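DM from R.C. (forwarded with permission)

"hey, sorry to bug you on a friday — could you get me a structure for this? deadline for the figure draft is monday and I only need the backbone to look sensible"
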Amino acid sequence: MRILKILGLIALAVAGVFLVVVLTILPASRRSGGVEGTLPPLKSVSKTIAANAWYLKMIDSKTGWAMAAAGYVLRTDDGGNTWMDVTPPGLKEAIGAPANTPGEFRPGYFFLDANHAWMVASPFQKDVPATVLGTANGGRSWFLSSAHITGMAYNVTFVNPETGWILAHKGVAAGSEMVALARTQNGGQSWSVLSGGDPESNTVPMGGHKNGLTFLDASKGWLSGFAPYSGKAFLYQSTNGGATWKDTALPAPASFFPDAMFSTMPPVFFGAKDGVLPAIFNQNKQIIIFYATHDGGATWTPGAPVESRLAFSFADMNNGFTLDTSATLLNRTTDGGKTWQQVTPNVSLKGITQLQFISDKVGWATGGGAIVKTTDGGATWTKLAP
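My reply, with the result:
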């Protein structure tokens, strides 16, 4: 009898060891009773769909994002040769349009890096809050949240995977525009309203028409646009994360009439100190002047005027490119916009609406039903799509 008890204890011990071994080998999902799932592989789209991209954001020489006609959100991992469909499910429905709505619609968007991106869909219906869709895995899955502000939320920007802002346009009248502003500090999962876009809760100046928003860090940001005031640009700065805003002096360059009217676009920064800010002047022809800062936006110095379309890109603080108004020449700077040289491309760039350079050599252009790429600073272009 004693022998049987001993054998029984030995059997229990062996079984216990076996159970520990099994629990150690099995994946965590099996231990908890769940099923370990995998996301389905991304599907590539035709070059025809990719060719209708109207916005590109290349993170590096291989990885990039695109917004395309018919509501597509695309991603490439081979420099633009092939594109995958990473469109958030229900994006069209989120703006109140049926799934078969013809033509284009353009939600707000921001691509931070290879993994993080956000879409902001503004419903057609009045007083319905904007819907936010975000991804942290390169578009393989998306989460859904509400920004708690109404209006056309075209402008969204982030400074890191956690901190971002949405600007919603509420309506214009007599040289002014009411906007709403919301901020997130948890990657877009939830939002707090900084300015409701009404007289009672408005903290953003009503004067002028706003066209863009950018932040350098969690505190310092700029609001750009146009105001019908002679000799003065529309540019406001916040130093407290968008809670309040103050006017920033940006006088017209001496080479222009002192009463010239011009608009600004959001500045682009390359590190904590250096950045460029585009200013657009329309005097018989469209002129762009890139203001430069080397002190984190405390002061701005105008560069040389260049005749250009609104297709331009700076790869870094020194190297920038613009497409001239005839679309037959590229303008190139290697000193941050102080001087410009012309580059004659090997193909016509008519129809191009956007340039995207990641270095002084490598860049992409899209528009007119095509995506093209250069690896020699804009002299030679190769068609990637269609």
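R.C.: lifesaver. The CA atoms of residues 179 and 294 lie 30 Å apart.
me: no worries. Helices lie at 2-25, 28-31, 47-51, 91-94.
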